[in-house]
Write a structure and sequence with these properties.
The protein has about 110 residues and is mostly helical. The protein is built from six helices and no strands. The chain has a domain of about 60 residues: Orthogonal Bundle (DNA polymerase, domain 1), CATH 1.10.150.
């Protein structure tokens, strides 16, 4: 069966869990993804969406959508953990920018 990709979107693990929870007859891959999402999603879908919105409101042009979703998935506790997520960024982040991101993340723990 051929599929056409219409749109690709980055979504947090918690949303993957929510989507796959509704699928009745899961394929092997869907079952594996669902088990992974159950094990590793740390916050609710509502909290994840709020956190994404708040991070987008920072209006840091160098903070990309895929990085925001990874931040939501991993919920870094400090700048050292955040640096791992942001290390491949085209533009380096300033210490105060990273502190602001961590400050926002901590509100959702």
């Amino acid at each position: 069966m051929d599929y056409e990709i219409i749109k690709e979107t980055f979504i947090p693990t918690t949303k993957v869990k929510d989507i796959l929870k509704k699928v009745k007859d899961k394929t092997y891959e869907q079952k594996t993804a669902y088990e992974h999402a159950k094990k590793f999603s740390e916050i609710t879908v509502d909290k994840a969406e709020s956190l994404i919105k708040e991070l987008l409101e920072l209006e840091m042009r160098k903070l990309k959508e895929h990085q925001i979703v990874k931040i939501v998935d991993l919920m870094p506790k400090d700048i050292k953990e955040l640096k791992v997520i942001l290390e491949k960024s085209q533009m380096p982040f300033k210490e105060e920018e990273m502190e602001k991101i961590i400050e926002i993340v901590k509100k959702y723990e």
